[in-house]
Amino acid sequence: MFATTPLAYTYDGSFEGFLCCVFESYQWKQTPLAIHSDADGQALLLESKWIDTDSVKANRVLRSIPLKISPKAEELVRKGFWSSVPDKEMLLLNFLYLGFTHGPKVMDMLADDTVNALLKAVHLLNRESHHYMGFVRFTVYGPVMAAVIEPLGYVLPVIQDHFCDRFQGESFMIYDKTHKVALIHHPGRDAIIPLQEWIPPEPDEGEAAYRRLWQGFYDAIGIKERKNDRQRASMMPKRYWKHLPEMNGGLPSMRAGRPAAKRKAAEPKSSDTRQLQ
Amino acid sequence: MEKLEILTASAKYDVACTSSGSSRKSQPGGLGNAASMGICHSFAADGRCISLLKVLMTNGCVYDCAYCINRKSNPVRRAAFTPQEIADVTMQFYRRNYIEGLFLSSGIMRNPDYTTEQLIAALELLRNEYKFNGYIHVKAIPGADDALLSRLGLLADRMSVNIELPSQESLDRLAPDKSKQSILKPMGLIKNKITENRSDLVKYNHAPRFAPAGQSTQMIVGATPDTDYQILNLTEGLYRKYGLKRIFFSAYTPVVEDSLLPSLDTKPPLLREHRLYQADWLLRFYGFEAKELLDEAAPNFNPLLDPKCSWAINHPEHFPVEVNRAPYEMLLRVPGIGVRSAQRILKARRAGTLDYPALKKLGVVLKRAQFFITCKGRPLEGLKVGEHTLLRSLMSGHELAQFRQPEVEQLSFFSDTDLESLPVAAASAFRIGV
Prior knowledge:
The structure holds 2 protein chains of 2 kinds. Chain A is α/β, with parallel strands linked by helices. In chain A, 47% of the residues lie in helices and 16% in strands. In chain A, a hairpin with a 4-residue loop joins strand 8 and strand 9. Chain B is α/β, with parallel strands linked by helices. Chain B has helices spanning 2-9, 83-95, 112-129, 146-155, 168-174, 180-203, 228-242, 270-285, 290-293, 307-314, 328-331, 339-351, 356-362, 366-369, 387-394, 397-404, 408-412, and strands spanning 42-43, 49-50, 52-56, 101-105, 135-139, 158-160, 215-221, 246-251, 321-322, 373-374. In chain B, helix 7 links the parallel strand 7 and strand 8 (246-251). Chains A and B meet through helix 5, helix 6, helix 7 and helix 8 of A and helix 1, strand 1, strand 2, helix 2 and helix 12 of B.
């Protein structure tokens, strides 16, 4: 809708920062060629313009979405931002152009390329989140429990309520290794906080016994006459297997590459157990 | 605990391993909740979902049903859990997020009443002692006292009684200790309790919920000569009469030698099971009736085409369907359009007229749908409808490849050169009207 300028916007990678990019585009009536977060690194041979994150501007954009488009659109934009599609910022910017032009009707324009691509991205995020409701595996360390995940999308805020409700009496942490954040929960309060590194400590014998029990169950439940690896891999893609005790021999120490990783772990581990207790 | 493996191996042929239909928030001091969409926590080597800790209380049984691995006369290793052990393993697995809850069944210990009391004891421990708030699916034991079954239902999310064999005749042959009546009686009781409970809930807010996720059942397919038509009719009747939530089909896997049963080297009829599930879906979500899909003259599903494609090919009078105007019910009947894409079409056509590229974006499988639809009154440009193109497009290569192995003999009748002789007489007469 605006003239395209040969510029890339660069921002701090936060949702607010992205909303400021939208503000910027409207303020100068210009469409950038690309929007990068500073974490992306500069791969593009484009002049780039740094966009400051300003919560007043961000709020103006955010408030206008439910007002001028629909509350559903706000959710879509938030989730789109958490999704893992490449160039999600430009996709979202284009969606907002459409939304501010067409109003609530944009939510029905399923055959439009932009709307369609955004819905697909959010669908993937939702699906991955649903997978993680099942595929998160906690290890019990005395009074606390911890799990590690490596999702493509930023799923923690989507699965937060589910786990906090389900394990409301427990102290637990789910560490998202991809995005370097952790969902921390104590009875009564929870938060998603940045966490650079966390390597799970070795499980104790009691924990190992339950993993073996679970593995025995897993092996016993399959019917060998119906073996179907392809079906299993499509329902439970291999990228999840690494963190599933039933798929890798039960004990993390049996995984390749562990000892090296463990040495690095010593320090962040202790600082984190403090957080949990 | 080796016990767990024995009692899991004995329970693995039971399907019904879903966790959907019950939504419950957690309670202070307790553990867990129930998510109504159902959550799969793992997938076994056979590709089937694991959402519940599926075990038997014991695999010892006083009955002697020919198809059953736990039959009295089968020399397998026997084991039993105490209610305490069941509760402990469930809690420990649940806490680690291995499972969504418990699926508890049992061989018949002493008699149905005693067995039911044991099941109740395990569930009471979980619900009352441990305040376990997750999903529980429990088997109603045919022949148990009504009062006991009522107590059991108040502790569980879902209850099921297995029909196992789709006709009285087959039951007589293979499960002499069971009768149609002994299965339908508890099914009726559960249904009545659920209905009663629903009106109680309207009257009193805090009435305890009786099997809020409803009841389900399972049938073994391929152990007896019953046809798909009989099975599907029974299925439809059960949905209507007993308000069942789900009916599961289990391709018969020979586990014990018996002169009355298919031999031990028989492969489970997986493709047949698959077709029945497809048809079941058509009954529950697509507005089909059993008698539309099969009849006495053609009592079994075509292995090459899914039930919806078979129906469409045999009913050219309903097609083509104009995508921009057709009602939802009619869109659902088009091969290649599922529930999700039909709903998307309704939504998207509010915003503008749809063409073929748009349909593709909405998830319509044009490869199949192209023969049955028009967009703005026109068929897809360049569409050729010969018998071969039509049939080839409608057959799912993936599905067939996946199931070819167990169906070798059946499929060899339908080699490529034999396509014309397929039992879809209408195919040759089928043309898109423009």
